[in-house]
Amino acid sequence: MYQKRKISIVISLMLVTLLSTSIFAAEKITVWTWYDGVLGQVFKQLVKDDFEAKTGIIVDLVTVPVADMNNKLLLSVLGGDAPDVVELYSNQIVELGVRGALENLKDKPNLNKTLEQMHPGLMRQLTYKSAVFALPGEANWTWTYYRKDILAEVGAEVPKTWDELTALSTKFKARKMDIYYDYQGDAATRSTGRLLPFVFQKGTDIYSADGTKSNLDDPEVIKAFKEFVSLFKDYKLPLEDPGYQTFVDGSTPIQIYQNWYYSLFERSAPQLAGKWDLAEMPGTKRKDGTIDRTNTGKMLTWAMTASSKKKDAAWKFMQWAVSPEFTGKFSKLTYETPEKWRLFFSTKDAIEKSPFPDAQKDVARKALANCVMQRAIVGGYVADRYVDFAFNSVVLQNANPEDAIKKAAKDSTTEIQRKLKEFNRMISKL
Q1: 3-state SS assignment for residue 205
Q2: What's the pLDDT tens digit per position in 88-103?
Q3: Across-strand partners of 61?
């Protein structure tokens, strides 16, 4: 009897030891995310029920406002307490990567398989030379919201080209109505974001092919810039966002904007159900008569810090966070919340897994497939700044468009080459 009790105690102690060991051995990573509120609750639950349950990796989720993420990350890197994984805007990625703050993912297992799930046009902001610094998460593309009832009332169709848009703008002005065209970004990227579709639709880019200088003085880019500024200088499209209420009241019945606006219209104006619809953004007619409707946008991405001590676990999380399985569940569950969030992801099957009305899925597929992100180069952010200067000088100060954009090209090239020289040592390691 005593012997049996002794054996039982020993076994119990061994089990306790094993359990304690497993608890203490559980790997833990820190992840910074912008998801908060209802979105944060759903995200946290999925992390717990799906990722943690499957991998045994514990995730310490820290919510950081997206506007503060970049600066806070730099401070944490300098302070030696950076997270393992961070959610960043796509236009921040390459600059942080070249500076050594982000891990180069190019040799991570199953990277190619992961990237095959994504639309190729979305990776332009996340790669530099052979380096891959992030994976795409939520994708924002640009398209047209329009009031079907008002277009029917004025006897017009949603514009397929920029020429059709300007003609309709004149017609709207006579009725004290307007068209709004914008790009969601900070002050420095706004003008470039609006210019890029014109540039891409002409088959060119704002940087040279080798990424060493500006291409803003290319004849096709100059032509694109002139067409772009003409919308605001000659056709007087609003410079500032008139707000969604003007879409609701019908004074701005066409708004070309990014996809996140969808939830706002849907939640805030249920009385408009069935009265508005979506179309691809206007395009440029090719020589063969087809219309190039390339749009642009930006993304929320997942990146790994170079200082992470748990890179294998961090990589597993990143792969999970961009997988069709997770993004499909996240889209479904967030739409089922009272806020009816519609989240848009970067995977090729994102539209099929999203709660989009079937009637709009074809437009969404085309818009996502035609979304091309601004290519990332070292010092590329200065081009944004100088394009904005050029835009303001033409529209607000009546400068000559060609002179303005050529000056932007010269100033951008100077800064890009200065940055290339500054980071040459780091670039050579990529």
Answers
A1: coil
A2: 999 999 999 999 999 9
A3: 31
CA distances from 290 to 201, 244, 283 (A): 11, 32, 10
Q: What is the DSSP track for 45-87? A: HHIIIIIIHHH--EEEEEE--GGGHHHHHHHHHHHT---SEEE
Q: 29-44 in b/e burial notation, b at 16+ Cβ within 10 A?
A: bbbbbbbeeebeebbb
3-state secondary structure of 284: strand
Instruction: Using alpha carbons, list the distances in angstroms from residue 236 to 3, 172, 179, 228, 362.
Output: 94, 12, 9, 12, 32
Identify which of 259, 262, 282 has the alpha carbon closest to the alpha carbon of residue 272. 262
**Buried b / exposed e across 189-223, counting CB within 10 Å, b at 16+?**
bbbbbbbbbbbbbbebbbbeeebebbbbbbeebbb
Can you tell me whether residue 256 is helix, strand or coil? strand
CB contact set of 311 (below 8 Å; sequence gap of 6+): 84, 103, 304
Identify the pLDDT of residue 3.
52
What are the strands of the beta sheet with 85-89, ordered from one edge? 58-63, 28-33, 85-89, 298-304, 135-140
Tokens of residue 145, six digits: 């919201």
Helix (H), strand (E) at residue 194: helix 187-200
Beta strands in 275-416 (DSSP E): 276-280, 284-285, 291-292, 298-304
- 10, two tokens: 């020993």
Query: Tokens in use for 402?
Result: 């060609």
Residue 420 per-residue DSSP state:
H
Q: What is the pLDDT of residues 213-258, one digit of tens each?
A: 999 999 999 999 999 999 999 999 999 999 889 999 999 999 999 9
The structural domains of the chain, ordered by start, are: 27-138+300-364 (3.40.190.10), 142-296+374-425 (3.40.190.10)
373, 296 in Cβ contact below 8 A?
A: yes
- Residues 396 and 400: their CA atoms lie apart, in Å, by 11
